[in-house]
Write a structure and sequence with these properties.
nine-stranded mixed β-sheet; 160 residues; 32% strand; 4 helices; globular; alpha+beta; single chain
Length: 160
């Protein structure tokens, strides 16, 4: 049994250690991190999963971005990770489904990510053909869910 809790500031380094464990070295050099630089995550949508002993088992974060010349608002999902010893238990799906549900409840109509299309298709994500992430991003891995009709252009950092 897991407890899904909002990520708090005190969780930061533990979550970062999980991401370091689950992703390749140099993960912060990816183009998606350029969209996050200097932009706070959407705190109410960032969650951790802890087991009954309080041990971190997984985490997900969401970041606001803009798309196209008109600056259409969207969420960038990620990173999402499950500790290797907890993988295969459905925890990633639970984090994903809860995160998407809460994003909808908060009024976000578009969520995108960079990831494996066959895996994320089971959550409803489809390729976003007209949306360009900063290079070097494989276009086949740019996926979205929600109201993406007529939304095209470059993904840029959220700036007010």
């Amino acid at each position: 049994m897991y407890h899904l809790l909002r990520e708090e500031p005190d969780d930061r380094w533990e979550v970062e250690a999980l991401y370091d464990l689950c992703f390749a070295p140099g993960r912060e050099a990816l183009s998606s991190y350029r969209l996050r630089d200097g932009v706070p995550a959407v705190r109410d949508l960032c969650h951790v999963a802890r087991d009954g002993d309080g041990i971190l088992a997984g985490a997900v974060r969401f970041w606001p971005v803009r798309v196209g010349e008109s600056g259409v608002e969207a969420l960038l999902l990620g990173p999402i990770a499950v500790h290797p010893t907890r993988q295969g238990e459905g925890l990633g799906g639970l984090l994903m489904e809860q995160g998407l549900s809460r994003a909808r409840e908060a009024g976000w109509s578009r969520v995108m990510l960079v990831g494996d299309a066959p895996y994320y298709a089971k959550f409803g994500f489809l390729p976003l053909r007209g949306v360009q992430m900063p290079p070097p991003t494989n276009r086949d891995r740019v996926l979205g869910i929600g109201d993406w009709a007529e939304v095209t252009g470059d993904v840029t950092p959220w700036r007010h």
